[in-house]
Structure prediction request, 389 residues.
Amino acid sequence: MMTMSRNAAPISFAVALVGSVGLLSACNKPAPAPETKVAAVQMIGPDNIAVAKVDTLRSGPTISGTLVADREARIRAEIGGAVLQTLVESGQRVGDGALLARIDDGVLQDAALSARSAVTTATVTSDQAARELKRSKTLLAAGAIAERDAEGAERANVSAQAQLLDAKSRLASAEKNLKNAMVRAPFAGIVAEKTVSAGDIVAPGAALFTVIDPRSLRVEASVPTSALADVKVGAPVQFTVNGSDRKLEGRVTRVSPMVDPQTKQVKLQASVPNAQNALVAGLFVQGRVASEKRAGILVPDKAVDQTGITTSVMRLKNGKVERVDVQVGLRDDGAELLEIRTGLAGGDTVLLGAARGISIGSPVSVSSPKDASPKQAAPAPAVTTPKKN
Prediction:
């Protein structure tokens, strides 16, 4: 039978007392403070924002067409023969009446010489017939000749005058053909096309040159019939040339009175000043007829969400994203801009593209273009492993 030591009870009591004190201390320890979560700032690039600006908005039907020279001459051969010489090349500037080419005129010169001789002979005959008629009238008045003799002199004079007119007509035709052997520019301009060379045999009507006046061009385009109410003669036309961002302006000069049966559209023409010769004929252009214009707050149309119940934009204000309901007005199809009538002010920053999907209230920072370049990472510090003894 085991016996309990005298000191066992005091030791158990002491252990219990220490445990109670430890438990009490644990209960009285203050609870840790709750962690505060700070939202991370999202970085977006400059291409994800746009600034609302106050500018003039032009609205109207879009057009596309081709630049055509307002003055264009397609020069064709008026006589047949061998081309002796060409004096210009395509792209060369020529003056009014400048000689472009020469066609062999040997036969024409002979014909013109013969016609001149015929005129000379007819002139002599005509003068003689006129004198005989005058003499016959004098003798008839004196009773020296019969009346039928005077009538014969008058008929001879009429025939001689007719022969003279015929000879002069033949001479004019021969001189005109001789003149046509020298092909000349009908007005000052640029040789746009040359289709003949020295040595070619051409027939009357064969194409030789095309000369255009580049100082004034016109746009030949078409618009849908639904846009006819917005297209008037004199309305301004703004357009850009294919492959260039330069904006040009002209005015509507003609509107076709009938619809094209193939395209179901209406053709129009617009004049385009080209005093500096910056444009050339044949270029493809796109633009619109600016039938209405007014000043307003403009933003890119891709910044506006029109799919919901209300039209809205995502605005960046005080570094945070917020949704703003807006009311839109005119649309500039050429510049892809929308007029904002209510909801925004000039200078407001709106989000574009994927940035529009950022949650409302999220903090956002816009990086500068130089921040968009990748930065080189700093080298990691070296780690030293202690050696074992």
In short: The domain at 73-104+182-209 is CATH 2.40.50.100 (OB fold (Dihydrolipoamide Acetyltransferase, E2P)). Residues 106-142 form the longest helix (37 residues). The two ends are 55 Å apart (CA to CA). Residues 1-27, 372-389 have pLDDT under 50 and may be disordered.
